[in-house]
Amino acid sequence: MSTPTGTHGLADSYGRVATDLRVSLTDRCNLRCNYCMPAEGLEWLPTEETLTDDEVVRLVRIGVEQLGIREVRFTGGEPLLRRGLPGIVARTKALDPSPEVSLTTNALGLSRTADALAAAGLDRVNVSLDTIRRDLFHQITRRDRLDDVLAGLAAAKSAGLGPVKVNAVLLRGVNDRHAAELLRFCLEGDYQLRIIEQMPLDAQHNWSREKMVTAQEIFASLEAEFTLTPDPEHRGSAPAETFLVDGGPAKVGVIASVTRPFCGDCDRVRLTADGQVRNCLFAREESDLRAALRGTATDEEIADQWRLAMITKRPGHGIDDTTFLQPTRPMSAIGG
Ligand code: SAM
Ligand code: SF4
Questions:
Q1: Residues with Cβ < 8 Å from 188, sequence gap 6 or more?
Q2: First vs last Cα of the chain: how many Å apart?
Q3: How many Å lie between the centroid of ligand 1 and the Cα of residue 196?
Q4: Ligand 2 centre from 30 Cα, in Å?
Q5: CA separation for the pair 220, 249 (Å, rounded)
Q6: Looking at the DSSP assignment, which residues form a beta bridge with residue 229?
Q7: From ligand 2's centre to the CA of 35, what distance in Å?
Q8: Which helix (H) or strand (E) holds 277?
Q9: For the residues 121-146, what does the mean pLDDT come to?
Q10: What is the DSSP letter of 196?
Q11: Does residue 5 register a pLDDT over 80?
Q12: CA–CA separation, 283 vs 44, rounded Å?
Protein backbone atom coordinates (compact mmCIF):
# COMPACT_ATOMS: atom_id res chain seq x y z
CA MET A 1 0.00 0.00 0.00
CA SER A 2 1.19 3.53 -0.66
CA THR A 3 2.26 5.63 2.29
CA PRO A 4 1.88 9.38 2.81
CA THR A 5 5.63 9.78 2.64
CA GLY A 6 6.32 7.18 -0.03
CA THR A 7 7.04 7.94 -3.66
CA HIS A 8 3.50 6.91 -4.56
CA GLY A 9 1.88 9.67 -2.52
CA LEU A 10 0.91 13.15 -3.67
CA ALA A 11 4.36 14.72 -3.66
CA ASP A 12 5.13 18.05 -5.28
CA SER A 13 8.45 19.24 -6.63
CA TYR A 14 9.31 21.12 -3.40
CA GLY A 15 9.24 18.04 -1.19
CA ARG A 16 5.78 18.56 0.26
CA VAL A 17 3.36 15.63 0.35
CA ALA A 18 -0.39 16.17 0.42
CA THR A 19 -2.23 13.95 2.91
CA ASP A 20 -5.17 16.27 3.64
CA LEU A 21 -7.95 16.33 1.05
CA ARG A 22 -10.54 19.13 0.99
CA VAL A 23 -13.61 18.14 -0.99
CA SER A 24 -16.11 20.75 -2.09
CA LEU A 25 -19.50 19.05 -2.27
CA THR A 26 -21.37 21.96 -3.83
CA ASP A 27 -20.69 25.55 -4.85
CA ARG A 28 -24.17 26.59 -3.68
CA CYS A 29 -24.84 28.35 -0.41
CA ASN A 30 -27.75 29.56 1.70
CA LEU A 31 -25.83 32.54 3.11
CA ARG A 32 -24.29 35.39 1.14
CA CYS A 33 -21.30 36.44 3.27
CA ASN A 34 -20.28 39.70 1.69
CA TYR A 35 -16.55 38.86 1.69
CA CYS A 36 -17.33 35.63 -0.18
CA MET A 37 -20.07 36.22 -2.75
CA PRO A 38 -22.44 38.90 -4.06
CA ALA A 39 -26.01 39.37 -2.78
CA GLU A 40 -27.51 37.72 -5.86
CA GLY A 41 -25.34 34.62 -5.48
CA LEU A 42 -23.32 33.17 -8.33
CA GLU A 43 -23.97 31.17 -11.44
CA TRP A 44 -24.10 27.75 -9.81
CA LEU A 45 -22.66 24.64 -11.42
CA PRO A 46 -25.29 22.71 -13.39
CA THR A 47 -26.28 19.48 -11.65
CA GLU A 48 -24.91 17.30 -14.43
CA GLU A 49 -21.47 18.86 -14.00
CA THR A 50 -21.46 18.20 -10.26
CA LEU A 51 -20.02 14.88 -9.13
CA THR A 52 -22.58 12.35 -7.94
CA ASP A 53 -22.21 10.80 -4.48
CA ASP A 54 -20.71 7.66 -6.06
CA GLU A 55 -18.21 9.73 -8.04
CA VAL A 56 -17.16 11.69 -4.96
CA VAL A 57 -16.68 8.49 -2.99
CA ARG A 58 -14.71 6.86 -5.80
CA LEU A 59 -12.24 9.77 -5.96
CA VAL A 60 -11.91 9.91 -2.18
CA ARG A 61 -11.31 6.15 -2.15
CA ILE A 62 -8.54 6.47 -4.74
CA GLY A 63 -7.02 9.27 -2.65
CA VAL A 64 -7.11 7.18 0.50
CA GLU A 65 -6.23 3.76 -0.89
CA GLN A 66 -3.64 4.75 -3.46
CA LEU A 67 -2.37 8.24 -2.68
CA GLY A 68 -1.85 8.44 1.07
CA ILE A 69 -4.75 10.76 1.94
CA ARG A 70 -5.31 10.51 5.71
CA GLU A 71 -7.68 13.40 6.39
CA VAL A 72 -10.78 14.31 4.43
CA ARG A 73 -12.67 17.57 5.01
CA PHE A 74 -15.99 18.18 3.29
CA THR A 75 -16.73 21.80 2.50
CA GLY A 76 -18.28 23.99 -0.18
CA GLY A 77 -20.26 26.25 -0.80
CA GLU A 78 -22.40 24.86 1.98
CA PRO A 79 -21.87 21.10 2.36
CA LEU A 80 -25.01 20.63 4.49
CA LEU A 81 -27.03 21.44 1.36
CA ARG A 82 -25.87 18.13 -0.06
CA ARG A 83 -28.60 15.57 0.69
CA GLY A 84 -26.29 12.60 0.49
CA LEU A 85 -23.82 14.02 3.02
CA PRO A 86 -24.34 11.41 5.80
CA GLY A 87 -23.93 8.61 3.24
CA ILE A 88 -20.79 10.17 1.76
CA VAL A 89 -19.36 10.55 5.27
CA ALA A 90 -20.18 6.96 6.20
CA ARG A 91 -18.62 5.55 3.02
CA THR A 92 -15.52 7.70 3.49
CA LYS A 93 -15.12 6.65 7.09
CA ALA A 94 -15.46 2.98 6.05
CA LEU A 95 -12.39 3.18 3.79
CA ASP A 96 -9.24 1.35 4.74
CA PRO A 97 -7.30 3.00 6.29
CA SER A 98 -10.17 4.97 7.77
CA PRO A 99 -9.38 8.67 7.37
CA GLU A 100 -10.18 11.43 9.84
CA VAL A 101 -13.35 13.03 8.47
CA SER A 102 -14.42 16.59 9.20
CA LEU A 103 -16.77 19.26 7.91
CA THR A 104 -16.53 23.02 7.41
CA THR A 105 -20.01 24.51 7.52
CA ASN A 106 -22.06 27.61 8.21
CA ALA A 107 -24.13 25.34 10.52
CA LEU A 108 -27.55 26.22 9.07
CA GLY A 109 -29.57 23.06 9.68
CA LEU A 110 -26.80 21.39 11.67
CA SER A 111 -29.07 21.22 14.72
CA ARG A 112 -31.16 18.69 12.77
CA THR A 113 -28.32 16.69 11.22
CA ALA A 114 -25.50 16.66 13.79
CA ASP A 115 -26.56 13.36 15.37
CA ALA A 116 -26.91 11.61 11.99
CA LEU A 117 -23.52 12.91 10.90
CA ALA A 118 -21.91 11.76 14.12
CA ALA A 119 -23.55 8.34 13.67
CA ALA A 120 -22.16 8.23 10.11
CA GLY A 121 -18.68 8.61 11.58
CA LEU A 122 -17.99 12.34 11.21
CA ASP A 123 -15.16 13.21 13.60
CA ARG A 124 -15.24 17.00 13.86
CA VAL A 125 -16.83 20.18 12.56
CA ASN A 126 -15.61 23.72 12.00
CA VAL A 127 -18.39 26.28 12.07
CA SER A 128 -18.03 29.68 10.43
CA LEU A 129 -19.30 32.49 12.63
CA ASP A 130 -17.96 36.03 12.34
CA THR A 131 -20.00 37.71 15.05
CA ILE A 132 -22.52 36.91 17.77
CA ARG A 133 -24.34 40.21 17.22
CA ARG A 134 -27.57 39.62 15.37
CA ASP A 135 -27.46 42.90 13.40
CA LEU A 136 -23.87 42.40 12.31
CA PHE A 137 -24.48 38.73 11.45
CA HIS A 138 -27.36 39.85 9.22
CA GLN A 139 -25.24 42.59 7.69
CA ILE A 140 -22.30 40.26 6.91
CA THR A 141 -24.23 37.19 5.75
CA ARG A 142 -27.23 39.10 4.34
CA ARG A 143 -29.49 36.64 6.17
CA ASP A 144 -31.05 36.85 9.66
CA ARG A 145 -30.00 33.33 10.68
CA LEU A 146 -27.80 33.77 13.76
CA ASP A 147 -30.08 31.62 15.94
CA ASP A 148 -29.81 28.67 13.53
CA VAL A 149 -26.02 28.88 13.62
CA LEU A 150 -25.95 29.01 17.42
CA ALA A 151 -28.30 26.02 17.59
CA GLY A 152 -26.08 24.16 15.11
CA LEU A 153 -22.98 24.87 17.15
CA ALA A 154 -24.60 23.57 20.34
CA ALA A 155 -25.88 20.46 18.53
CA ALA A 156 -22.41 19.72 17.14
CA LYS A 157 -20.97 19.83 20.63
CA SER A 158 -23.62 17.61 22.13
CA ALA A 159 -23.29 15.13 19.25
CA GLY A 160 -19.62 14.76 20.18
CA LEU A 161 -18.28 16.39 17.00
CA GLY A 162 -15.52 18.10 18.93
CA PRO A 163 -13.34 19.90 19.47
CA VAL A 164 -15.75 22.24 17.68
CA LYS A 165 -13.85 25.06 16.06
CA VAL A 166 -15.31 28.42 15.15
CA ASN A 167 -13.81 30.15 12.09
CA ALA A 168 -14.16 33.91 11.90
CA VAL A 169 -13.13 36.53 9.37
CA LEU A 170 -12.77 40.08 10.66
CA LEU A 171 -13.90 42.93 8.44
CA ARG A 172 -12.60 46.42 8.99
CA GLY A 173 -15.22 48.73 10.43
CA VAL A 174 -17.77 45.92 10.71
CA ASN A 175 -16.85 43.28 13.30
CA ASP A 176 -13.14 43.96 13.89
CA ARG A 177 -13.79 45.65 17.24
CA HIS A 178 -15.61 42.58 18.55
CA ALA A 179 -12.91 39.92 18.36
CA ALA A 180 -12.58 39.70 22.15
CA GLU A 181 -16.35 39.36 22.52
CA LEU A 182 -16.36 36.45 20.07
CA LEU A 183 -13.48 34.82 21.95
CA ARG A 184 -15.37 35.15 25.23
CA PHE A 185 -18.42 33.51 23.67
CA CYS A 186 -16.22 30.64 22.42
CA LEU A 187 -14.50 30.19 25.78
CA GLU A 188 -17.87 29.99 27.52
CA GLY A 189 -19.24 27.51 24.97
CA ASP A 190 -16.05 25.44 24.87
CA TYR A 191 -15.49 26.17 21.18
CA GLN A 192 -12.03 26.86 19.79
CA LEU A 193 -11.93 30.18 17.96
CA ARG A 194 -9.70 30.67 14.92
CA ILE A 195 -9.56 34.05 13.25
CA ILE A 196 -8.66 34.01 9.56
CA GLU A 197 -7.07 36.81 7.57
CA GLN A 198 -9.26 37.68 4.62
CA MET A 199 -7.83 36.37 1.35
CA PRO A 200 -8.20 37.57 -2.25
CA LEU A 201 -10.70 34.85 -3.10
CA ASP A 202 -14.00 36.73 -3.14
CA ALA A 203 -16.16 36.45 -6.24
CA GLN A 204 -16.48 40.22 -6.48
CA HIS A 205 -12.70 40.84 -6.45
CA ASN A 206 -13.12 43.48 -3.73
CA TRP A 207 -10.25 42.31 -1.52
CA SER A 208 -7.50 44.78 -0.79
CA ARG A 209 -4.54 44.53 1.53
CA GLU A 210 -5.44 47.85 3.17
CA LYS A 211 -8.93 46.67 4.10
CA MET A 212 -7.73 43.29 5.35
CA VAL A 213 -7.49 43.01 9.16
CA THR A 214 -3.99 41.67 9.76
CA ALA A 215 -2.82 39.09 12.28
CA GLN A 216 -1.02 41.91 14.13
CA GLU A 217 -4.29 43.77 14.52
CA ILE A 218 -6.08 40.58 15.56
CA PHE A 219 -3.48 39.96 18.30
CA ALA A 220 -3.76 43.57 19.47
CA SER A 221 -7.52 43.41 19.85
CA LEU A 222 -7.45 40.05 21.66
CA GLU A 223 -4.58 41.10 23.90
CA ALA A 224 -6.53 44.13 25.07
CA GLU A 225 -8.64 41.69 27.10
CA PHE A 226 -6.73 38.40 27.27
CA THR A 227 -3.17 37.22 27.80
CA LEU A 228 -1.97 35.12 24.87
CA THR A 229 1.07 32.87 25.16
CA PRO A 230 2.41 30.64 22.37
CA ASP A 231 0.95 27.13 22.45
CA PRO A 232 3.73 24.69 23.42
CA GLU A 233 2.13 22.01 21.23
CA HIS A 234 3.93 21.48 17.90
CA ARG A 235 2.14 23.28 15.04
CA GLY A 236 3.11 20.84 12.27
CA SER A 237 1.31 21.62 9.04
CA ALA A 238 -1.66 23.28 10.79
CA PRO A 239 -2.49 26.65 9.25
CA ALA A 240 -3.44 28.19 12.60
CA GLU A 241 -0.84 29.55 14.97
CA THR A 242 -2.36 28.76 18.33
CA PHE A 243 -2.04 30.53 21.65
CA LEU A 244 -3.05 29.66 25.19
CA VAL A 245 -5.66 32.08 26.49
CA ASP A 246 -4.93 33.39 29.99
CA GLY A 247 -2.50 30.53 30.62
CA GLY A 248 -4.70 27.80 29.08
CA PRO A 249 -5.99 25.21 28.66
CA ALA A 250 -8.29 27.18 26.32
CA LYS A 251 -6.70 28.16 23.02
CA VAL A 252 -7.25 30.61 20.21
CA GLY A 253 -5.84 30.34 16.70
CA VAL A 254 -4.90 32.92 14.10
CA ILE A 255 -4.67 31.90 10.46
CA ALA A 256 -2.42 34.51 8.91
CA SER A 257 -2.49 33.18 5.37
CA VAL A 258 -1.49 36.55 3.91
CA THR A 259 0.94 38.15 6.36
CA ARG A 260 2.55 34.97 7.70
CA PRO A 261 2.09 32.37 4.96
CA PHE A 262 2.58 28.72 5.80
CA CYS A 263 2.84 27.42 2.22
CA GLY A 264 6.16 25.72 2.94
CA ASP A 265 4.37 23.26 5.26
CA CYS A 266 1.23 22.82 3.16
CA ASP A 267 -0.09 19.25 3.09
CA ARG A 268 -3.39 19.95 1.30
CA VAL A 269 -4.97 19.21 -1.99
CA ARG A 270 -8.45 20.18 -3.13
CA LEU A 271 -11.19 18.63 -5.19
CA THR A 272 -13.94 20.90 -6.55
CA ALA A 273 -17.60 19.89 -6.74
CA ASP A 274 -17.17 19.34 -10.49
CA GLY A 275 -14.25 16.99 -10.02
CA GLN A 276 -11.26 19.23 -10.68
CA VAL A 277 -8.11 18.71 -8.63
CA ARG A 278 -6.47 21.92 -7.46
CA ASN A 279 -3.08 21.69 -5.80
CA CYS A 280 -3.54 25.08 -4.06
CA LEU A 281 -6.36 27.48 -3.15
CA PHE A 282 -4.60 29.98 -5.40
CA ALA A 283 -3.77 27.60 -8.24
CA ARG A 284 -4.68 28.77 -11.70
CA GLU A 285 -4.53 25.30 -13.22
CA GLU A 286 -6.85 22.37 -12.53
CA SER A 287 -6.75 18.73 -13.54
CA ASP A 288 -10.03 17.31 -14.78
CA LEU A 289 -10.62 14.07 -12.90
CA ARG A 290 -14.32 14.14 -13.77
CA ALA A 291 -13.56 13.59 -17.44
CA ALA A 292 -11.37 10.66 -16.48
CA LEU A 293 -14.05 9.28 -14.11
CA ARG A 294 -16.80 9.53 -16.69
CA GLY A 295 -14.58 8.04 -19.35
CA THR A 296 -13.00 4.65 -19.13
CA ALA A 297 -10.08 5.45 -16.82
CA THR A 298 -9.11 2.85 -14.25
CA ASP A 299 -8.47 3.80 -10.63
CA GLU A 300 -4.73 3.51 -11.31
CA GLU A 301 -4.95 5.91 -14.28
CA ILE A 302 -6.89 8.42 -12.19
CA ALA A 303 -4.30 8.11 -9.41
CA ASP A 304 -1.52 8.79 -11.94
CA GLN A 305 -3.30 11.87 -13.27
CA TRP A 306 -3.79 13.14 -9.71
CA ARG A 307 -0.08 12.63 -8.88
CA LEU A 308 0.87 14.52 -12.02
CA ALA A 309 -1.37 17.42 -11.01
CA MET A 310 0.74 17.93 -7.88
CA ILE A 311 3.99 18.54 -9.74
CA THR A 312 3.04 22.09 -10.73
CA LYS A 313 2.20 23.13 -7.15
CA ARG A 314 3.94 26.45 -6.60
CA PRO A 315 6.15 27.07 -3.57
CA GLY A 316 3.82 29.80 -2.30
CA HIS A 317 0.60 31.65 -3.06
CA GLY A 318 2.46 34.73 -4.31
CA ILE A 319 -0.12 37.26 -3.07
CA ASP A 320 2.71 39.75 -2.63
CA ASP A 321 4.16 39.22 -6.11
CA THR A 322 3.47 41.92 -8.68
CA THR A 323 2.43 39.12 -11.03
CA PHE A 324 -0.22 37.74 -8.61
CA LEU A 325 -3.50 36.94 -10.28
CA GLN A 326 -6.58 36.01 -8.27
CA PRO A 327 -7.85 32.57 -9.34
CA THR A 328 -10.91 32.56 -11.56
CA ARG A 329 -12.90 30.39 -9.16
CA PRO A 330 -13.93 32.11 -5.92
CA MET A 331 -13.44 30.48 -2.51
CA SER A 332 -17.05 29.21 -2.47
CA ALA A 333 -16.45 27.24 -5.68
CA ILE A 334 -13.03 25.92 -4.70
CA GLY A 335 -13.93 24.77 -1.19
CA GLY A 336 -12.49 26.74 1.70
N1 SAM B 1 -20.02 27.52 3.73
C2 SAM B 1 -19.10 26.90 4.61
C3 SAM B 1 -18.63 27.83 5.68
O4 SAM B 1 -18.87 29.03 5.57
O5 SAM B 1 -18.02 27.35 6.62
C6 SAM B 1 -17.90 26.28 3.93
C7 SAM B 1 -17.27 27.06 2.80
S8 SAM B 1 -16.59 28.64 3.25
C9 SAM B 1 -15.94 29.17 1.69
C10 SAM B 1 -15.19 28.12 4.22
C11 SAM B 1 -14.52 29.20 5.03
O12 SAM B 1 -13.94 30.13 4.16
C13 SAM B 1 -15.43 29.98 5.95
O14 SAM B 1 -14.90 29.91 7.26
C15 SAM B 1 -15.36 31.39 5.43
O16 SAM B 1 -15.43 32.34 6.45
C17 SAM B 1 -14.01 31.39 4.76
N18 SAM B 1 -13.86 32.39 3.71
C19 SAM B 1 -14.68 32.67 2.69
N20 SAM B 1 -14.17 33.64 1.91
C21 SAM B 1 -12.99 33.97 2.46
C22 SAM B 1 -11.96 34.90 2.13
N23 SAM B 1 -12.06 35.69 1.07
N24 SAM B 1 -10.87 34.96 2.92
C25 SAM B 1 -10.75 34.16 4.01
N26 SAM B 1 -11.68 33.26 4.37
C27 SAM B 1 -12.78 33.18 3.61
FE1 SF4 C 1 -21.58 30.56 2.11
FE2 SF4 C 1 -19.45 29.88 3.51
FE3 SF4 C 1 -19.27 31.70 1.50
FE4 SF4 C 1 -20.56 32.36 3.73
S5 SF4 C 1 -18.38 31.84 3.58
S6 SF4 C 1 -21.31 32.70 1.61
S7 SF4 C 1 -21.46 30.46 4.35
S8 SF4 C 1 -19.73 29.57 1.29
A1: none
A2: 30
A3: 9
A4: 8
A5: 21
A6: 244
A7: 9
A8: strand 276-278
A9: 98
A10: E
A11: no
A12: 20
